[in-house]
Amino acid sequence: MSGEYFELGYPPSAFYFSVGFVLGVGATGIQVPDASFSEVSGIGTEMETEAVVEGGENRFVHQLPKQIKHGNLELKRGIANANSPLYKWCKSTLEGEFIKMIEAKSVLVKLIGGNKQILRAWEFHDAYPVKWDVEAFNSTKNDVAVEKIAFAYTYSQRIR
Question: Per its UniProt record, what InterPro entries does this chain match (predicted)?
Answer without folding.
Answer: CHP02241 (IPR011747), Phage_T4_Gp19 (IPR010667)
